[in-house]
Amino acid sequence: MHSAELIDVTKLCKDIQGMRSKLIRLCGVAEGHLENHFSTILASYENPLHHLDDFPYYANYLKLSQLEFDILTKHCPNVPNKVAFVGSGPLPLTSIVLATFHIKTSVFDNYDIDPLANSKAIQLVSSDPDLSRRMTFHTTDIINVTHALKEYDVVFLAALVGMDKDEKVKVIDHLAKYMSPGAILMLRSAHGARAFLYPVVDPCDLRGFDVLSIFHPTDEVINSVVIASKSPSNKQSTDQHPLGPTKLPTSFSTLKCLIPCSTM
């Protein structure tokens, strides 16, 4: 195990905690600029989705989406009818990759608070007859979405929705209140030194959900993956705290991507 993986950010001193919080926000701003820039470039093509590998981290999205799909099918063997992605941004690669390669018949509702981000995202999928039919983009804060959340079989929560603990927990509590019992919540977290780039989601943060598994990658992909099921009631499950990482491959290299980058 690398020494960086042994870092427990909860035990760092107050000054380092403050530095970490600023770094996460800086990372979020930088990632937003990067996605805006490449979304604009891709939209200049006649068929933007044929050029997704122009984005420098596209291969990582392929790997992460493959992993998330593998974990999802392990716990949810039925193909979901409706999927929500919260925090889709101007370059909604996760939704695009999942809808194109893995969940090929489902409807995807993408939520983002930024109207410009949604405008850019719509430009990317508008030229594709299938995705433009199955994908919609909603400009709203997810906190303002209530009963519509009951329609989704699976909800994905982007890593940078809620960039500190309080913000993240507020969103999770809202989802717990309105998602249907048994619906799946997939979150991106971070582990070890990677927690200096992205917020950490602990099992105890998932009040109203039963944590099913947690996976921490050890390669170039930064985000951990957490999957949970909405509990029959909003009471926190008592058996989720002792949960350890699920027994999945320790490296993405052992997971075969269904679609290589060159075919896009």
UniProtKB/TrEMBL annotation:
The keyword Iron does not apply. It catalyses: 3 S-adenosyl-L-methionine = nicotianamine + 3 S-methyl-5'-thioadenosine + 3 H(+). It comes from the Eukaryota. It is an enzyme of class 2 (transferase). Keywords: S-adenosyl-L-methionine, Transferase. GO terms for biological process: nicotianamine biosynthetic process. Its EC number is 2.5.1.43. InterPro entries: Nicotian_synth, SAM-dependent_MTases_sf. Coiled coil: none annotated. One of its GO terms (molecular function) is nicotianamine synthase activity. The keyword Lipid biosynthesis does not apply. Pfam families: NAS (PF03059). Synthesizes nicotianamine, a polyamine which serves as a sensor for the physiological iron status within the plant, and/or might be involved in the transport of iron. Belongs to the nicotianamine synthase (NAS)-like family. This is Nicotianamine synthase.
